[in-house]
Amino acid sequence: MALVAVELRHFHWPDGSHHLDHVWECVCLVVGGIGVAIRAHVVGHAPADTSGRNTERGQVAAVLNTTGLYSVVRNPLYLGNAFMWLGAAMFVRDWRIVLVATMAFLLVYERVVMAEERFLVEKFNGPYGPRAAATPAFWPRFSGYVRPNLPFSLRNVLEREYGGTFGFVAVLFAFEIGGDWFYKGEFLVDPIWVGLMGFSTVAYLTLRTLEKHTRYLHVEGR
After folding, report:
1. Which of 59, 78, 85, 198 is the most exposed place for a label (fewest CB within 10 A)?
2. 21-51+60-213 adopts what CATH topology?
3. What pTM does this model have?
4. Rounded CA gap, 159 and 217, in Å?
């Protein structure tokens, strides 16, 4: 984050155009949105207590996911995270930030993936071996796609993913405010971003309240 703060001092609008600035912001939102959509697809079709859905109990995997996006890549949730990291890094408009973010992502998630795959090998030694051999670890191979066993559950996605999505929007909002401050020398609040951040905040608080104090978002068997 210290490096981001330093690089924001050199923040600029493309060709000095606020219009092009908005275009680039949309590109970054789309890139990050792809990551959000990937995670939503995975979580929306996931059964309860499966790999990638870990809690304070540690690694949890009652069954092995081999359908949906898990049929084309072994770690689809982290693929989604990669797009979200990339979208945030691109927002700063500095290739060095993109490079550092990519290296940091690989360093962090390589260890996480290795630990999770050791756990899965121990728990599903028979079926996991052929699955790992036939499915790429990170780059999807869509020719092997298998339809999910369970229907998509929007409530499951809302319950599990609201925090990460809000965090992504909040990071971009902070970059937007900080970047414009350094570029224009004044505190600017773009109405579009105010609306997006306001909506995200209301959605976050609403969904968090529903998750913590009701069972409305709970889906049996998810």
Report:
1. 198
2. Four Helix Bundle (Hemerythrin (Met), subunit A) (1.20.120)
3. 0.88
4. 6
